Prior knowledge:
The chain has 513 residues and is mainly α. It has helices at 2-14, 21-28, 56-63, 65-73, 76-80, 82-86, 146-150, 196-199, 212-216, 245-249, 262-265, 279-283, 312-316, 329-332, 345-349, 395-398, 412-415, 445-449, 462-465, 479-483; strands at 433-434, 437-441. The protein has a two-stranded antiparallel sheet. It is elongated.
Amino acid sequence: MRISRTVGFLVILCAGPILHAATIESLVMPGPVIEGHAKTEENCGACHNLFERTAQRGLCLECHDRIAADATAGTGFHGRDDTARTADCKACHTEHKGRDADIIGLQPTLFDHDATDFPLTGAHVGEACASCHAENLRYAEAPGACADCHADDDVHKGSLGGACADCHQTAAWRDADFDHDTTDFPLRGVHAETTCLGCHESQLFDAPGAQCIDCHRVDDVHKGRNGTACADCHGVESWETRFDHEAETGFALLGAHADLACRNCHVDESTYEGLPADCRGCHAGDDVHLGRNGSDCASCHRQDKWSIEFDHEAETGYALMGTHAGLACADCHTEDLETPLPVDCVGCHDTNDPHGGTLDTCSNCHGQAHWDEDMRFQHDLTSFALVGLHRVTSCEQCHDTLVFSPLGHDCMTCHADEDVHGGAMGERCDSCHNPAGWEHWSFDHAVATGFALEGAHASLACADCHPANRPVGNQSRACVACHRGDDVHNGRFGQNCDRCHTGTSFEELKDDL
């Protein structure tokens, strides 16, 4: 039995030239290959080198030339992924699992798309694989250009080519970012803030004209009369002009003129010719002098405002001070400025003179700030100096009218109604009274009358001895003249009571009695 088996094996070995080599290889093959490799199934050497296992990757790439090109160029998944670029193919793709086996082994939900030539960004991240990868195409055959998927969304109808990413972002189709500086018309000023459709009415983006008038013809208030070189006067920062008025016209715009719009002077914007260069040419309607002062307004007025800049003192010799400084020219100059005006107060204020012309020079008393408040008359220069309460008394309290006719200097001229003595003391009130106040009086009875007030007499009021109905100076010095009713002696000891009695009290007798 053993001999027969050995003979049989030898027979098989000897039959080598007769049997096909593929028959032997098929005996050791693990299983059928996939449908795509079926044509090489009987030729193991197409994929395997029996004597060099590391040569298998090279054999794979000989057939899969597109993958070989990616690996070499560093493109596609097999050129960008470190493992796919260097590892043996069989490390990921296991064969001999049958005709319908999936040797690719792709798991879409775990696949890192950044390892491809088309990283997913923006809105692409949320898209399903089938949105871009058609069922009948290899994954690597998916289109990579924007237009391949978005041709129907192209509002430009292909007029801008297929490089959509030059302007659009993947986050949103409307987020366009085009560098206009790459064109012949860089966007500056207001143009940089203008939307694309502001100039390109059609989204085909046909290049509009590069001249201002090509877009701004409807904005041209000059209706083409000033030509098409708008940039000579207007800037791109705004439609406001940058025209050098002085250099071009000889008339510099200064002060308030610098802030005026062209149409403020050039009412007819169809032409900028023929405007006057003198002040009255434009400001005749503002001339309150009605032409009486000529047309050289600048001799008095400034350009930053219509207020006057005129040195009245230097030009006329008459300084404007106080209230005069705030007057308008027309307050004094009711006619033209050439008509001379008086320089004295009465020349302008004669109708306001409350003194009836009795005083020569107003400035002796009045200042220029205010007639009623700025008075400085020195009454001491008259024959009646003001002292005491007289100094704080108003003029009207002594002078019934402002026609200051001379008044009497004696007290009774003004104070007769206040004389409590009824004239009994005469008219020289100042003999006793002080100008500081009626109550501040001082009278030396002993010196003035020879009758010293002593004892009980010292505390008496004047009226106790000098009744209002008795003239001063007629009183008798005899005691009985005042004390007759007090004389208990009924006149038996005469009229000189002071021979026995003291001035302190009738009850008190002199010591030598």
